[in-house]
Amino acid sequence: MLRPFVRVLTSAAFVVLILQFAACGQVQVNNGPSSSSSTGSNSNGPIKIAVIPKAIGASYWESVHQGAVCAASKSKDVTIQWDGVTAETDVTGQINLLTNYITQGVNGIVYAATDAKALTQVTNKAVQAKIPVANIDSGTNPQPANVPLFATDNVASAVKAADLLAQATHSTGKVAFLPFLAGSATNDQRAQGFLQGLTKYPNLKLVATQYSQSDTNTALRVTEDILNAHPDLTGIFAANEPGVIGAAQAVKKAGKAGKIVIIGWDAAPDELTAVQQGLISALVVQNPFKMGYDGVNAAVKMVREHAQVSSEDTGVTFVTPQNINTASVKAVLNPSCANPPV
Predict the structure, then answer these.
(1) 263 & 301 share domain
(2) For position 204, which CATH number holds?
(3) Using 50, 70 and 90 to split pLDDT, how confident is the model at 36?
């Protein structure tokens, strides 16, 4: 999940997060790379894994964080360093951060690539330094065979998003699409799937495509522009958390809540509230907890067993006003280390 739409982790929230997992094992959360050197294999002793999301703070990435912390707590002598830039657009910042961890020394790296092509060189550098790497949420292009990716099948899920939009609009009318960051693997895959899905519905006319830049305020502004240009708009598909929230705010501000269908992605609290209120028709909800959990477990296995780990589709849940309160959906929306949704 994770970005300019940053939900700041307050001191109180930080204490709650640490206390939640302290009983399970050792967790290390840093604001930057450690000065100690532990690069390379450590089959038997303590290992340190850097876990780097696309950006820190948003609820999606915090769920990834919880999954990573949970996995570390269930393995002996494993600590994680959770670190990241504050905006998904800061590709250079993420490259520099990962390079510092490679140089200063960790046993493994688990990260979500902000840019599929730009981060390829960093992955190769880590592998050359004999530091195992696992990608979560977003990989690189190309994706090395020895670097597993734990992520959603974004293409197939976005095809389903088009189906949901068609179902809610009776397969007719003008619709808009809010992708987020061109060049991000997840963005490009979701765009591919959504546009592929729309081809099945010739009476749904795509009249606007505007990037949110993974920023709520930008999404609000571009959605307002779309609504002004197309007052008869019938539906919107927004491809990530900030885009969904910004689009929903714009629709509500325009007095069109419930009149314009919104299909969204992710499951931030504001998104779930909008589903319950009928402002959002459906959400494509990933399993970020599982991404963090399985990504750290994979890194531990690669370090300790020198094993080749396969990539994995971590799955999605389609959340609607009709199923949001069911037990199976609640398990995905409210993961816990005691009963992880994995």
Answers:
(1) no
(2) 3.40.50.2300
(3) very low
Give the mean pLDDT of 85-101. 97
Quick check: is 332 in a domain?
no
State pTM to two decimals: 0.82
Helix (H, G, I), strand (E, B) or coil at 265: strand
* Token output for 298: 């994979």
Give me the sign of the Cα torsion angle 81, 85, 91, 96.
Answer: negative
In this predicted structure, the answer to whether residue 148 has a pLDDT above a threshold of 80 is yes
Q: What are 217's two structure tokens?
A: 């305020």
- Say whether both 148 and 15 belong to one domain: yes
Whether residue 46 sits in one domain with residue 148: yes
How far is it, in rounded angstroms, from Cα 250 to Cα 278?
A: 15
Assess whether 141 and 28 both reside in one domain: yes
Count of structural domains, the chain? 2
Q: Distance from first CA to last CA of the chain, Å, rounded?
A: 17
Is the sign of the CA dihedral 49, 79, 288, 340 positive or negative? positive
Looking at residue 93, what DSSP letter applies? Answer: H
- As a whole number of angstroms, the longest Cα–Cα distance in the chain is 64
Residue span of the structural domain in which 112 resides: 11-152+287-314
What's the confidence (pLDDT) of residue 310? 97
Do both 127 and 273 map to the same domain?
no
DSSP, collapsed to helix, strand or coil, labels residue 131 as coil
Domain contains 334: no
- Nearest Cα to 219, choosing from 205, 231, 234, 208? 208
Give dist(CA 283, CA 161) in Å, integer. 8
Q: Which of helix, strand or coil describes residue 263?
A: strand
Both tokens of 282, joined, read 């459906």
* Shared domain check, 162 and 291: no
Q: Give, in order, the Cα–Cα distances in Å from 279 to each of 5, 118, 243, 244, 302.
A: 20, 37, 14, 11, 44
